[in-house]
Amino acid sequence: MMTVHKLSAGDGYKYYTHEVASGDALRANDRELGDYYTVDGMPPGQWIGTAPEALGLSGEVSEAHMHTLFGQRFTPIETMEVKEMLHGLPEFDDYMAAYNNAYESYKAHAAERAWEILTRAEDGLSQQEIAHQLGEIGHPMNQKTVSNYLTRYAAVGNKITSAQAEHNGKNGIQSEGKALTKEEFIERYRLTPGEITAAHNAGKRAHNKLYREQTASQLHPEYGAGTDFTKRVSEEIARHRRMHDGAEPTKAQMQEIRFRVGGELYRAQRGIEPTHAQLRQFIAENSKRHQTAIAGFDLVFTPSKSVSIAWGLGDKQLRKDIEAAHEHAIQDVVRHLESNVVMTRRGHNGIRQIDTKSGVIGTKFRHYDSRAGDPNLHDHVVIANRVEGADDKWSSIDGRVLYQYGVECSELYNSKVQEYVTQLTGLQFEPRMQNGKPIHEIVGISDETIRAFSSRRGDISAELDKVKAKFVADNGYDPSEKQLIKLAQQATLATRPAKSEARSLEDLHTEWVAAAHALSEHGVHVPVDHQLAESLKNASAQYEQNTLQAVRQEAYSTPLEAHTDAVLSRLEEARSTWRRTHINAETSRYVRELGLNEAQDRGLISSIRQSVASDSLPLHIKDTRLTPREYLRKDGTSQYQRIDAELFTSERVLAAENKILDAASRAVIPASTLDVFELAAQKRRAELAEQGHSLPAGQEAMAREFATSDKFLVVGIGAAGAGKTSSTRLAVDAIEASGNRVIGMAPTAAAAAVMRSEMRINADTVDKILTDWQSGKASVDVRPGDVLLVDEAGMIATPKMEKILTLAQERGALVRALGDYRQLSAVGSGGALRLVDREIGAVHLDELFRFRNPEEAAATLSLREPPLVGTDKPFSWYLENNRVVAGSADAMIEDVFRKYSADVNAGKQSIMIASTNETVTRLNDLAQAHAIEHGQVNTGTGAVALHNSSRAHLGDTIVTRKNARRLIVNSGQDFVKNGDLWRVTDLHDDGRITAQHLAHGGKVTLPAHYVEQSVELGYAATIHRAQGSTVDTAHALVDAATDRAGAYVALTRGRENNQLYVSLADGEKRDDVLDRITGAYERDLTVHESVDQLRSEHRNIASLIAQHKDISELAVQKVMEPYLMEGMSRVKEHPVRDKDSGQIIDHTPANGVEDAKAVLASPAWPALAHDMGEAYRAGVDPAALVERAYSYRPLEASEQGAEAKDYAAVMQWRVEKLNVDAQKVHETSERPLSYLSNEHLARLVDQAAKRTQPMADRLELSDPWWFTNPYAMVKSDELMAMRSRTFKALQANENDGGLYEKIKENLGDMDAEVQRRRWEISGDQRELEQIIRGERPRSGHNFTLHKVLSEEQKVRQHLIPTIDLPETKRPEQIQNGISGHTLDRFWENHPNLHNTRLGTILHSRSREIGQLAQVRGAQLAAEKPEWVKQLGDVPANKKLARHWYRTTAEVEALRDKYNIAPSEPEAVPKKLRTQAKPHKEPTRAEARGKFIHAQVINTHKRSVMAAHHRMPKTKAENVQLAQARDTLQRAREARREGRPTADIGVGMLSLNQHKQAQQLRAAKATEDGRRNQRKQGQPSVEQRITAQRTQRNETAQKIAELRKRAQKGLEASKQKPTPQPQRQEQSIQKRLEALRIQREQRQNNAVEEYRQRVQRRDNTSPQVSRGPQL
Question: Quick one: which of 523, 1550, 512 has its CA closest to 989?
Answer without folding.
Answer: 523
